[in-house]
Amino acid sequence: MNKLQSECDLQRLQAITAFRLGREGEGSNALVKFIDGLAPVLESNSALLGPDEAALLSEIMAAQQRGDYLFVADLLEYLLPATALGGISTA
Amino acid sequence: MHDYSINNLQLLQQRWPELFAKLEGASELAALEYIDAGETPTLLVNGIHLSSCFDRVGEARLQAAEVPQGSHSVWLYGVGCGDLQCELLSRDDLKQLDVVILSLPLLKGVLRHFDHQQWLGDGRVRLHLGESQRDIRAPFAVAPACLKIVDDGAARLRDLIVLELETRHINARVRNNPQFLQQIQENMALVAKEPSVEALFGTRHGAQFYVAAAGPTLRENYQRLKERDGDTLLIAVDAALKPLVREGITPDIVVTIDGVRDHIMALFDLDLTRFAKTPLVYFPIVHRDVLQRWPGPRYAAYGSSPLYEELLLQHPKGLLYAAGTVLHAAVDLAVKMGGGKIVMMGTDFSFPGRRSHVANAVFCEDVAQSVHQEWVVDGHGGQVPTSKNLRGYLRDLERYIAQHPQVRFINSSRAGALISGAAYLDAI
Prior knowledge:
The structure holds 2 protein chains of 2 kinds. By secondary structure, chain A is mainly alpha-helical. In chain A, 76% of the residues lie in helices and 0% in strands.
């Protein structure tokens, strides 16, 4: 895992923990950084963003929008690693 | 799907008969769904998952870990699915667990769908209604999704919990903002030679003050402000400047404390010549361009933020209370000047009429229903939309008011948030 991926994964884990503890501001901040961290990787390898991955990212954003933060944490922790994005953000 | 209501409610009735009676009278949540699609079942309430769908126990363990080991007495806010209670009660050294119910309709739902007998039957547990709690108690744990489903009477408590959960993060963001640190450095020389806000303290003992913020209901007060006598001082926050001037009203003192340059410059983007004798009270985080535009005398003040700790030692100045909003500083200035009665205008902490600000304020806009799903109780006993930030500012102001019983605080409008501790202008 390179430095960018490591930072990306750190933000994902921070978002998960913060959301589960009710720290929405901290979690949202980490989530934004996580998404920002994914962007350059996806730009250089667009094959990583298939329909499943795009749908999952949309679901994450929709859950965050409605304030369903424990579900955001679930998606980041349990579903995202099972997609191609998991290769970016986890070891 | 099993219905656990009978056993749960029997236990509740035996131990807390009064609470049971209230629960019987509570309404049912319409948008409640039992979800069993993941590894562990949970409830979906108004689009909010009450817990993890994959590992409820692991989640509860993480939440419980926020409470220091060895704590004998712990407060838990929100009932949730019951996992957090069981996790905390598994600690041998825990002697008392005070569980605070934030929503009776939600309690009905979780008692139906999950077996709560283990913790309800534990002699260390005491149950409370959120409406009976004036302040949060520590150490505490939170079932965070329960903060989204709250009875009106528990709204204030919810806001205090949210404030507590977010404060550390907010402080860290301000403290670590390089732009703000640079602006303070650039203002050092200016701050060193300018008078302290302390020069204004104690100069108006027992006087009446009007404090004007830029909430939508400010406009209800224009006539009163135009007709004010010379003994009543008007302190305006920066955002209220433009709408007041548009009405021909000149504040006696203006307060500004925000470090975002372009935002604040827009508030001061008007003909300022009428303010040649009007004091501007500012925090050193305010951009120098803003300060240099002000034609009148300036008074430096510090907030309690760690940002100012070093500066306070080098160049001592007066302190003003401000927990995120300039309104706090304006109110504290009125108090420290000696105010005996403080009438707050446009201090809505919400969006009455779905407007963000009073007309002619720089950032005045319509507030869409979908953007802000939060609410506070208004002066009529209804709900008025707001944002989490505004709610936090409101609760901090209420705490401030409670700490100053010698001052009479008046809220000029019922359309905005009810401010605990402030009487209504139409009721005095």
